[in-house]
């Protein structure tokens, strides 16, 4: 029988392809009872990844992180688990808005203690609210409700009160000419402002983002020191990053993330 973590991942992958699927069909496909499937779905719904409708599981839609978390969930979990290995107990760090970043925050709260997490993401602050292992500092600013993120000059003013070793960010795309990109000017500026207060910027992203290109360059120049991505990253992209002095960590399917159960 599949482990609960494996079932949850398979459920999310199925929903990513199908959009919605019946509980009875999930039970048949995964070889477990409908009672077990309903328990799995209850946990996924509690974590904001899916919603339930009259015997059907439905993948959330929209631009918010709840919708994006479920897409390539297994890859994002592995990326987050690898990034968490870089953080020590008692550390203060910054985490920007993004689905990989949200899973990193969750992994850190499960595996580390006495952390201080600075973030401009209201979603992340809410996502890890049930843990007692980290103090969360939510940077102020103008609230963008769809992305659940703070932007604007107040983000910079708040961030200037801190200095951290590591700043973890997500991205929307990459191109050889522009480097890493975002789709939103205000969010991109918030990343730049927070990056000024960090020794190292670490990008967490799935490899498919390297075939996409946002409209707003992040313009972080030499601030980005590391990229953590999945094993499907093409060698050509990896070589170009290395040529710019950026370390690349590719996480394969044989890397086991910690159990996501809270």
Task: Give a structural overview.
The protein is an alpha/beta fold and 262 residues long. It folds into two domains: 4-61, Winged helix-like DNA-binding domain superfamily/Winged helix DNA-binding domain (Arc Repressor Mutant, subunit A, Orthogonal Bundle); 73-251, Rossmann fold, CATH 3.40.50.1360. Helices cover 38% and strands 25% of the residues. It contains ten helices and 15 strands. It has helices at residues 4-18, 23-30, 34-46, 65-69, 73-84, 99-111, 122-127, 153-159, 185-195, 235-243; strands spanning 20-22, 50-53, 56-59, 92-95, 115-119, 134-138, 142-144, 149-151, 164-169, 173-175, 179-182, 198-204, 216-217, 224-230, 247-251. A seven-stranded parallel sheet has the order 6-5-4-9-12-14-15, sandwiched between helices. The two termini are 21 Å apart.
């Amino acid at each position: 029988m599949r482990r609960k973590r494996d079932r949850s991942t398979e459920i999310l992958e199925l929903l990513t392809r199908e959009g919605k699927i019946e509980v009875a069909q999930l039970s048949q496909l995964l070889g477990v009872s409908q009672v077990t499937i309903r328990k799995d779905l209850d946990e996924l719904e509690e974590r904001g990844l899916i919603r339930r409708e009259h015997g059907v599981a439905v993948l959330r839609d929209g631009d918010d992180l709840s919708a994006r978390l479920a897409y390539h969930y297994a890859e994002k979990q592995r990326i987050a688990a690898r990034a968490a290995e870089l953080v020590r107990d008692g550390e203060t760090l910054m985490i920007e808005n993004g689905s990989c970043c949200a899973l990193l925050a969750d992994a850190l709260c499960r595996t580390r203690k006495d952390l201080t997490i600075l973030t401009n993401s209201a979603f992340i602050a809410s996502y890890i609210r049930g843990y007692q292992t980290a103090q969360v500092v939510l940077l102020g600013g103008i609230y963008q409700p769809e992305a659940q993120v703070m932007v604007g000059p107040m983000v910079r003013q708040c961030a200037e009160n801190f200095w951290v070793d590591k700043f973890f960010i997500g991205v929307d795309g990459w191109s050889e000419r522009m480097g890493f990109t975002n789709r939103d000017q205000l969010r991109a500026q918030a990343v730049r402002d927070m990056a000024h207060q960090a020794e190292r910027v670490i990008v967490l992203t799935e490899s498919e983002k390297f075939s996409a290109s946002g409209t707003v360059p992040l313009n972080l120049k030499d601030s980005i020191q590391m990229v953590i991505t999945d094993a499907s990253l093409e060698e050509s992209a990896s070589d170009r990053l290395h040529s710019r002095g950026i370390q690349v960590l590719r996480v394969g399917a044989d890397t086991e993330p910690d159990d996501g159960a809270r």
